[in-house]
## 1
Amino acid sequence: MKLTRKQSKQRRHRRIRGKVFGSPERPRLAVFRSHQHIYAQVIDDAAHQTLVAASTVEPELKAKLASGGNCDASKEVGKLIATRSKDKGISQVVFDRGGNLYHGRIQALADAAREAGLDF
């Protein structure tokens, strides 16, 4: 039986979440990608708490970007999540790509976060 794209993504997501767990010392950087926007959160899974968040729907980024659904927008969100994390004292995270392939917008966000000083 051939799986649909949605089923393949859900299967990858379940497989990834079985392995990736955020701790207080090294929280999880979770990425969600929609067609028009991209969202990133730094989550402490032990405390069930979001520590830092950034997305393209925020007014400061929305005014600066032409579109929220391209690689340029992902780079800006990656830089923003890294600077906010560093302000909170978080320098190391584990990366949760959320079932998406590590390519395109997901890769752009991850590379920008690494360049801004986040270690994963």
## 2
Amino acid sequence: MLVRDFQVLAVIGTILFYVGKQYGYFMERPELRPYLISNTLIVFGLTGVVIFLPRIEYILIGLTATMICYVILSFRYR
């Protein structure tokens, strides 16, 4: 698989995952909206940086790190 193809798939997958995950919380918990929006934007920014890594393995590690970052950020509103 070419790195470029993987980058495109990683971006599409990240967007679909986080938007799909956040939609229910966004609609049902209006008090969490600022946190959800900021967390999602931070993760999208990190993903934008990570997808330019030179190898697929590095991209996968970076995407895993962005998910861990999202979990840590989510503790802000607990």
## 3
Amino acid sequence: MTEFTPDFRDDLTRLMMWRRDVRRFRSDPVDEALLSECLDTFLLAPSVGLSQPWRLVRVQSDAARAAALKNYQSANATALSDYSGDRAALYARLKLSGMREAPVHLAIYCDEATPKGAGLGASSMPEMRRYSVVGAVTQFWLAARAQGLGVGWVSILDPVQLNRDLDIPPDWSLVAYLCVGWPEAPSDTPELAKVGWEDRDAQLEMQTR
């Protein structure tokens, strides 16, 4: 069994503290070997039934990126209309994606029909496949941060339209749209906390049954 030193555990905690949802990127390119090294962490991630249901799509062409950006802009306008007053004014000022600047766009899908794993652990809770993809995304996110890269998760999207624009197989469900690149500036504080949208809880609440 591997023994981890106190220094390693402290560094791991710091890494998690400095993992941010980045929306402000420099336009500098990301070295392909470095990106591949970070993406290889998907192969190390746990998955229900060892199904490895993640499917990665590199959104790279001008047409595909323009369609994704248009999708975000439309969904963001709809989201804004759900707010009013000061909340709406604050929402309108938020920068909620780095899609224009980020050099790398990744659409991360879950293959809901994968035969791998033979359905183990997913028959009663099929959503476990998607949770497995989320775990893999988190692992990639930490690996990217350790290399100095920033990752931004864009959730303000119409997945049906995105799937149509990217010609995605019908059994794949969108889990994450990620922007990857070099952040303008590092920060250990969530941007939404900085601008007063919401505060992060300082203590974990736990109930006992």
## 4
Amino acid sequence: MGLIIWLVVGGIVGWLASMVMRTDAQQGVLLNIVVGIVGAFIGGLIFSGGNVNPALSITSFLVSLVGAIILLAIVNLVRRGSVR
């Protein structure tokens, strides 16, 4: 059951990040989930000094969102040459 919750939360985080970065039309549900999960990992590494905490809370949700936005900014920078 925990895996399903993480996939749903990852999808929501990835979708919100794609809305902020205006890349929502280019991404599907699967890519939103991947962006959310990878963004959570990146945010955890940045904000917690390398200690990734798997607890589900508002703070971890916001850290995941910031990490996903950073990930999409890097992807846009590599793909287009600008953050957008």
